[in-house]
Amino acid sequence: MKIEVNQVSKSFQKHQVLGDITLTIDSGQIVCLLGASGSGKTTLLRIIMGAIPADKGGVNIDGKSMPDRKLLQAIGFMPQNDALYEELSAWDNLKFFAGLQKVKRAEFLKNAEQILSIVGLSNEKNKLIRNYSGGMKKRISLAVALIHQPDILLLDEPTVGIDPVLRKQIWNYLKKLKEQGKTIVVTTHVMDEVMECDNAALLRNGHIIASDTIDHLIDSTPNGKIEELFFMDEKTGEESLC
Ligand SMILES: Nc1ncnc2c1ncn2[C@@H]1O[C@H](COP(=O)(O)OP(=O)(O)OP(=O)(O)O)[C@@H](O)[C@H]1O
User: Fold this and answer.
1) CA of 100: how far to CAs of 6, 95, 196, 240, in Å?
2) Cα Rg for the chain, rounded, in angstroms?
3) Are 152 and 1 in contact (CB under 8 A)?
4) pTM for this structure?
5) Does 168 fall in a domain?
6) Per its UniProt record, what Pfam families does this chain match (predicted)?
7) Ligand 1 pocket, 39 CB below 6 A?
8) What is the full per-residue pLDDT of the chain (242 aa) written as tens digits?
């Protein structure tokens, strides 16, 4: 499914967080949103999924204007802060969220075990969430986002607190999903993860200052290093520490 963000602007209490954002994300692409803390990445994800309205502009998914209740079922959203039921087990959380997405029982049973194995929680599925570590909560949140096999994944810093081996496993799975034609948008501060994406959009002061393939973006940096993307200057394309 294709995501089109058209001239989106958003302010909170007169503070403009996003200004005139235009971005197209095609099926079978992994795109990452890069930018300093507070640059509006989460806000953009929430506008894409229709959780909050834009002040101006809008988002179309497969040509339909968001928010759209039917399209919501095609989206898996992983928030930065876990939205889990602490007094339920991981398995029951998964079951609950699968129910909300109207996943059939047989399909749930088939998917749940596979997804738990990808996030490395097969042996911990009966533990209550309140007894989970931070990283485990992150992993089960990712499983929740995946449980209804959505066509679009919006993942807000999905691998924070997850060890490198599992992180690799999760990225291999995301790349498999991409090959199946899923559309994936990820926010991250982890440079290794940027390299796993096809494209990146750099957010600065509420604007997209660059949006291109990862290879082209790296070529445009002074020393060809991915870290330098964070220091690119809006106007000159040169290094800036401002
Ligand atoms: N509901 C809200 N009410 C008021 N201000 C908000 C709200 N949501 C976000 N903001 C503000 O909008 C700005 C962008 O926040 P956002 O969470 O989108 O940034 P971010 O790039 O995702 O940051 P981080 O990398 O730290 O997660 C911040 O200044 C934040 O305080």
Assistant:
1) 29, 9, 31, 46
2) 18
3) yes
4) 0.91
5) no
6) ABC_tran
7) yes
8) 999 999 999 999 989 999 999 999 999 999 999 988 889 999 999 999 999 999 999 999 999 999 888 888 899 999 988 889 999 999 999 999 999 999 999 999 989 999 999 999 999 999 999 999 988 999 999 999 999 999 999 999 988 888 888 888 889 999 999 999 999 999 987 788 888 999 999 998 889 999 999 999 988 888 888 778 777 654 444 443 32
**Distance in Å, CA 164 to ligand 1 centroid:** 27
- Please return the burial class of 215, using the count of CB atoms within 10 Å of its CB with bins 0-12, 13-18 and 19+: exposed
Output the residue whose Cα is nearest ligand 1's atom 10. Answer: 12
- In a domain? residue 242: yes
Complex ipTM more than 0.95, yes or no: yes
In a domain, 199, yes or no: yes
Give the chain's domain count. 1
> Is the minimum distance from the CB of 206 to ligand 1 under 6 angstroms?
no
Can you give the residue range of the structural domain that contains 57?
1-74+153-158+189-242
Residue nearest to ligand 1 atom 5, measured at CA: 12
43 Cα to the center of ligand 1, angstroms: 6
The CATH number given to whatever domain includes residue 41 is 3.40.50.300
What spacing in Å lies between the alpha carbon of 45 and ligand 1's midpoint? Answer: 11
Q: Answer whether 43 contacts ligand 1 (Cβ < 6 A).
A: yes
